[in-house]
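Async update (no meeting this week)

Hi team, since we skipped the sync, here's where things stand on the single-chain job. The sequence we agreed to prioritize is pasted below, unchanged from the tracker. I ran it this morning and attached the output directly underneath so nobody has to dig for it. Comments welcome in thread, and please keep replies under the output.
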Amino acid sequence: MQIDAHQHFWRLARGDYAWLTPELGPIHRDFGLDDLRPLLAAAGVERTVLVQAAPTSAETDFLLDLAANEPLVAGVVGWVDFEAPDAAHRIAALAARPKLVGLRPMIQDLPDDRWMLGEAITPALHAMADEGLTFDALVFPRHLPILRMFARRYPGLDIVIDHGAKPDIAGGALDDWAREIRATADETRLVCKLSGLVTEAGPGWSAEVLRPYVEVLVEAFGADRLMWGSDWPVVTLAGSYAAWRRAAETLLAGLSDDERDAIFGQTASVFYGLDRS
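Output:
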């Protein structure tokens, strides 16, 4: 089963995508199932994980409604107000919705890098673990030491790092990121998404530019803790769905069939419990 572990849909008229401004030209429009279907078919991808792109409960409802009767969408990673007094109750209610597999606070946009260690979100995190929901960590490299502390504090929570923690590929920053990502892989049981790298590399990227970053992720996490995602439609800021898929296949060509099967589907299926969802 070929799975895209990270993609988005949005509808601008909904009005809760504050980050999605006209300056982001190619992606400042609606994106939905009809846009994605031909891309999945061409890549041989059979199912996807649909991830939130706005920090609102309304958007999570919108995504769950879209996914409810759509076989291509295997699971939804939504959002909740983790600091709300009734967060645990809200999470229990969301967990009862078909296809809800996880939640994602938009940590990269929060002013406090140590937000994830705050006591206010503890009830929400315990509720997530109790309900079997996963936690998508949308972080930058500077968050990784804090994320390791977070993982130790909540050992019952299944956590995945989005986009390889967004290394500054365009700026050539490799060594510090590699040290932190290796430490995170060694010291925790976190898994990681092989996604978002094209955007961090920027226009003019190539598979060879991405190679050292992909090699670090494969070495650090291994195939059983690494999952491929398109990050579509954000990927179109610097490339295309097809180009990133081809690059990933090229960069992983030296792995065994079983390892590639894990990265391109099995890891996501196991982590998100997609067979159950």
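Quick observations from my side:
The first strand starts at residue 3 and ends at 7.
The CA atoms of residues 223 and 259 lie 5 Å apart.
Reply here if anything looks off.
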